[in-house]
Amino acid sequence: MTHKSYRHLKLATATSLVISSMIGTGIFTSLGYQLVDIRSVFTILMLWVVGGILSLFGALSYSELAAAFPRSGGEYYLLSRIIHPSIGFVAGIVSATVGFSAPAVLAAIAFANYFAPIFPSINITITAVIIIVCINILHATKLNMGKLFQDWTTILKIGLILIFIIVGLFFIEHQLISVLPTHSDLKLIASPEFAVNLVWVSYAYAGWNSSVYVVGEIVQPEKNIFRSIFIGTIIVTLLYIALNFVFLYVTPINELIGRVEVGYLSGVHLFGTKLATVVSLCIGLLLISTVSSYIYIGPRIVQAIGKDYDRLRILSKTDSQGIPYNAFILQLFISLLFVFTSSFEQVLMYTGITLIITSTITVCSLFYLRYKEPDLVRPYNVWGYPWTSLFFVLLNSWVLYYTFRLQTLESIIGLGLMAISFGLYFIIKKDK
User: Fold this and answer.
1) Alpha carbon of 73 to those of 49, 132, 137, 212, 232: distances in Å?
2) pLDDT at position 342, please?
3) What gap in Å lies between CA 96 and CA 197, rounded to an integer?
4) Is residue 81 in some structural domain?
5) What is the CATH number of the domain that holds 75?
6) Do residues 34 and 240 lie in contact, with contact meaning Cβ atoms separated by under 8 Å?
7) How many domains is the chain built from?
8) Residue 16: CB partners within 8 Å, gap ≥ 6?
9) Is the pLDDT confidence value at 4 over 50?
10) Going by C-beta distance under 8 Å and a sequence separation of 6 or more, which residues neighbour residue 412?
11) Would you say residue 332 lies in a domain?
12) Which candidate, 382, 380, 52, places its Cα nearest to that of 235?
């Protein structure tokens, strides 16, 4: 079968994929976990500032790699091309499972939880299943409908968050808080607790590299990859910092500590108890867009793997619109497996850990590629190289060091998945 190029994603849609992939479960669930170890408003906000900078620097590195090798597949294709097929294969399996299927499931479950105040009798699991199945069918059958849904739900998501921020900043009585740093805050930023909580934040920012996974479908990838990632990351960083400030601005910290539904709790203070159900509805709608973006991108990675390995060739088959329908079926199966077997909190943590590992390895490959192929045509060069890329690698290494020490079980689960994927490669490669 001849594989055609279906470059149909313009800058607006590519950027919306980045934004909607980033804004989702993490921003509406992680603050309560962060407050368990960190009670300082300044330090909490610094978590989100550092997370934004880290994502932006990672985005710069990914942009150079994707512009040089404009083929869909994300880390799978890049690491296979630059380092070794086995490393790429592991990254591909991780991306298709933990990277996209698991976050889609987490967003669907979060959607169901935020709808529970409106419909107390709903079954969380069944609701999540219905959402996942319906959106898989949408993206697997109607290419243009999927694009329109992605664009408009992203617009809705940004609009609702802006309403949340504006009401919180200008129309509601707030509690007295200080955002000025103290001596203890500066020590806390260098602490193991800060490092581990960056995993939660990194998960919330996960998705800044989304357009890289569908680079083969993006119009003028040499320009639009960087633009989509840069614009999307900047917008989300500003929204995250402002939204977390509003959470802390209007809601007593003691109410938020250890709670998942921080958006709902803050919504009660913003809009009153009677309108709390409306808040849940709005956040649920935001999460639909997140589920959509992950479900759209995930099968493209599976498709890329299927093109390269004979035994998996069936996964690369597409219909007349270029939609990899078998890859969608596999993703749906994996997603349903997560729904019925996984714990929300643990999946969120080991997902964050695993994604940090793969993104760090990918940015490291940039240094290797610069050394290995200095004359390679690069339509885009990383701004601030090597310092921006080095900052990304070193800070993530610091985060992983303390996470492995303090969150050992979740770290082992993440590494276990990577080890299984590595072993699977040596079985599959015989047919390559």
Assistant:
1) 29, 22, 21, 7, 20
2) 65
3) 25
4) yes
5) 1.20.1740.10
6) no
7) 1
8) 150, 151, 154, 155, 232, 293
9) no
10) none
11) yes
12) 52
Domain span holding position 64: 11-431
Whether the per-residue pLDDT at 240 is higher than 90: the answer is: yes
Cβ contact 41:241 at 8 Å: no
* φ/ψ (deg, to 5) at 214: -120, 30
**Contact, 55 vs 205, CB < 8 A?**
yes
DSSP symbol at 215 = G
Task: Dig out the tokens for 175 from the structure.
Answer: 């509690």
- What is the phi-psi region of residue 157: left when phi exceeds 0, alpha when psi lies from -120 to 50, beta otherwise? alpha
431 pLDDT band, cuts 50/70/90, is low
Cα–Cα distance list, 259 to 83, 87, 271, 297 (Å): 42, 37, 19, 30
Which neighbouring-strand residues pair with 218?
9
Q: Name residue, tokens 């950027």.
A: 15
Indicate whether 208 belongs to any domain. yes
How many whole angstroms separate alpha carbon 302 and alpha carbon 318? Answer: 12
Domain membership of residue 6 (yes or no) is no
pTM of the model: 0.81
> Are the CB atoms for 349 and 407 separated by under 8 Å?
yes
Residue type, 253: I
Q: Return the exposure string of 132-158: e unless at least 16 CB atoms fall within 10 Å of the residue's CB, then b.
A: beebbebbbeebeebbebbbebbebbb
CA–CA–CA angle 238, 240, 245 (5° rounding):
100
